[in-house]
Amino acid sequence: VESFMGAFLAIIIAVIGRRAGGEVVGALAGIIWSIYPLAVFIAGLVYPTGLATTFLACGLWCALPASKQEFSAKRIFFAGLFFGFAAVTIPVVLLTIVVLAVWVLYWARHSRFLLASLLLLGSALPLAPWTARSFVVHGQAIAIRPSVDRHLPRIRTGESNDPDDKIRAILQSPDLYLVNFGKEFLRFWELYPDRIKMSQTGYRENWHEKDSRVVSSTIYSPNLLINIISILTIGPVFLFALLGAATMWLRGERGRDLSVF
After folding, report:
1. Per residue of the chain (261 residues), what is the pLDDT tens digit?
2. Strand, helix or coil at 98?
3. In the Cβ-directed half-sphere of 106, how many Cα atoms lie within 13 Å?
4. How buried is 252 (Cβ within 10 angstroms: 0-12 exposed, 13-18 middle, 19+ buried)?
5. Which of 73, 90, 182, 216 has the fewest CB atoms within 10 Å, i.e. is most exposed?
């Protein structure tokens, strides 16, 4: 199932690339993803991430119209459905749904609020059964799962891992939370993933002191070959992304596509 889903995801990425940049861009996008080591890793081992990525790609394919075409109400609704399923898989996608609704409001030339409402309605349908179950089980309306707030960061020294303490700390020190958010955003764009650094015992122990969820000792460490492959593949992918973004920026009619990417 995961292998089929990984192959299907490569096809969807190729179709999205063709819609945004033409036949050559679509072919390159599909080929790069099909041989991208991190994509192979996700398809083979990280089932929730692969499933959510597939749903997100399908949703983007539905939402993004062809060049010089307007939004379709039917496609926007189905995009909402796919994004809703992605949110059930990984709850942080809820924020993506809100951002996509704003994107539709900005770029739609007519029926803006109707299209945004259809997107949100489609997203709500997969969430409704989980919310109803949470209300029955926990006695309160919870969109996906009651433990989402446990993934909030600890932004102050001595703060416990209790969700109430985390929320209280964020409300009392929003500036520290914004700083933490900025650091995490920049860390996302590192040339190589943190798992390479995680092979260093001292680095793991340092992170373990900050967050007890990070193990200080593990037998699962990447070897030199894996590290080299990661650096040599992620670098060109970022380079292609920057070149593509610059090209779309210079071609003014691609502003809608660039903004959603």
Report:
1. 777 888 888 899 999 888 887 888 888 888 888 877 777 766 666 678 888 889 999 999 999 887 777 888 999 999 999 999 998 888 878 888 998 999 899 888 888 899 999 999 999 999 888 888 777 776 766 666 655 566 666 666 555 555 566 777 777 888 888 888 788 777 766 655 555 556 666 777 777 777 777 666 665 555 667 667 767 777 777 787 788 778 777 776 667 777 777
2. helix
3. 11
4. exposed
5. 182
- Distance from C-alpha of 25 to C-alpha of 244, rounded to nearest angstrom: 9
CA distance 173 to 103: 30
Q: How far apart are CA 176 and CA 191, in angstroms?
A: 25
d(CA 169, CA 183) in angstroms, rounded, equals 18
CB-CB neighbours of 126 under 10 Å: 20
Helix, strand, coil tally for the chain in percent (to 5): 75, 0, 25
**Distance (Å, rounded) from C-alpha 204 to C-alpha 24?**
42
State if pTM tops 0.90: no
- Per DSSP, 10 falls in state H
Sorted by sequence, the CB contacts under 8 Å of residue 189 that are 6+ apart come out as: 238
